[in-house]
Amino acid sequence: MPELPEVETVKNTLKKQILNKKIILSNIYWDNIIASPEVDEFKKQIKNQKINNILRRGKWLMFELDDYFLLSHLRMEGKYFIRNKGDERNKHEHVIFLFDDNTELRYHDTRKFGKMYLIKKEEVYDVKPLKNLGKEPWDKTLTKEYLREKLNIKPIKTLLLDQSIIVGIGNIYVDEVLFQSKLHPETPGDTLKDEDLENIIKYTRLTLEKAIELGGTTVKSYTSSEGVHGRFQNELLVHTKEMCPNCNTKITKKTVGGRGTYFCKKCQKR
């Protein structure tokens, strides 16, 4: 958490707030968030860069500047808040960008797991972290043939969490996709039929589209932005649920690939 719908919501929210603003300076209060370049060089390079657009690739926010892309991964609980210059700094606001209109974009992260990269625009897709990402869910080349080549003996739950195959699907949404596809999360990926692969693609797209429409999923301490609360948690069919909505069987929870997994033993047989 956050997953693709939450990152898309953050992107759309920020586009309404900070486009065409120029970064006058940046203050870094937790150096480890800056993955590349070194902090001093980061601050030097980003100075006087204007925010021209905000894109998304997988779970990465891409702030398109004049000469660079600022890549930001929110990890577990990263958020962006808009403040005015001089407003008291919260102890969890670790990166602050001051704009030319005396407003600030503040990166808030209670766990400090988030990462930022500043990469030249012409290189951004050729180097890590974007270089090895898989296909976007709506990529026309995401086909059953593509999945057949990528899947192996690992559980399908684990494979769908692999960002080098399909990007952006996290734990919550994988559970929902597999439930709708009637697939047990521990089913080996290389045993799936063509119909199963087509269902995975179909329900991945439908689930994520619905989640984006509803502003993502707000769970526990995560909201995508200040004052922005997702509503998709009200649409969840199996994740965190007690009973199956189809057959009224008690939902099973177990760990698959190190992740808490919810499924119906009756509807999702191995």
How does this structure look, described?
- The protein is an alpha+beta fold.
- It is 24% helix and 22% strand.
- The protein contains six helices and eleven strands.
- The chain has helices at residues 4-18, 39-46, 144-150, 156-160, 171-180, 194-213; strands at 23-28, 34-36, 53-57, 60-64, 68-73, 79-84, 93-99, 103-108, 115-120, 252-256, 259-263.
- A five-stranded mixed beta sheet has the order 2-9-5-4-3, with helices on one face. Strands 1-7-8-6 form a four-stranded antiparallel beta sheet.
Features:
24% helix; elongated; 270 residues; alpha+beta; single chain
Low-confidence stretches: none
Describe the main β-sheet briefly.
5 strands, mixed
Coarse shape: elongated
The neighbouring-strand order within the major sheet is: 2-9-5-4-3
First CA to last CA: what distance? 27 Å
Amount of helix: 10-25%
Number of strands: 11
SS-based class: alpha+beta
What percentage of the residues does DSSP assign to strands (E)? 15-25%
Please write the string of helix (H) and strand (E) elements: HEEHEEEEEEEHHHHEE
Radius of gyration: 20 Å
Number of helices: 6
Mean pLDDT: 93
